[in-house]
Design brief:
Radius of gyration: 16 Å
Number of strands: 4
Structural class: alpha/beta
Shape: globular
Number of helices: 5
Helix content: 40-55%
Strand content: 5-15%
């Protein structure tokens, strides 16, 4: 399972492996107070996309499309999160944005779900001998 939480004041030690998914260190937070297990800067939106979005709700739909495209070129980091989920059961994506409804962690969570489903279907086809890796 993948969940999202704001890094400031998130629930007391949420269950699961905690990954901070912003490119920049959160303002006013010390390393001691951070409490996450890993910081994955590379999975965050590019600086250009982050600046363009500027957390403007009117740009949300376009931001989601652009970030989804960026994520599609970041398979290594995507698979790393999926493997951490398999290992720990739950992964908590921590973000610093104030808006709980318009932030990149939500898009990342949706992308991870899509990626897992897509690969699950691909694995099923391969196991049935009808996938692209089939010799017959």
């Amino acid at each position: 399972m993948v969940t999202t939480e704001r890094v400031y004041g998130y629930s007391e030690q949420p269950a699961g492996f905690k990954i901070f998914v912003d490119r920049l260190w959160p303002r006013g937070l010390t390393k001691k107070a951070a409490g996450w297990d890993e910081w994955m800067k590379e999975i965050a939106p590019s600086p250009e996309l982050r600046r363009w979005f500027g957390h403007r709700p009117d740009r949300w739909e376009e931001f989601k499309k652009r970030y989804w495209l960026e994520l599609s070129f970041n398979q290594q980091e995507t698979e790393k999160i999926i493997n951490l989920e398999k290992e720990h059961g739950t992964v908590v994506l921590l973000y610093a944005a104030k808006d709980p409804d318009h932030n990149h962690a939500i898009v990342l969570k949706d992308y991870l779900l899509f990626y897992k489903e897509k690969n699950s279907h691909e694995e099923d086809r391969i196991n049935r001998g009808t996938g692209p890796r089939s010799n017959g």
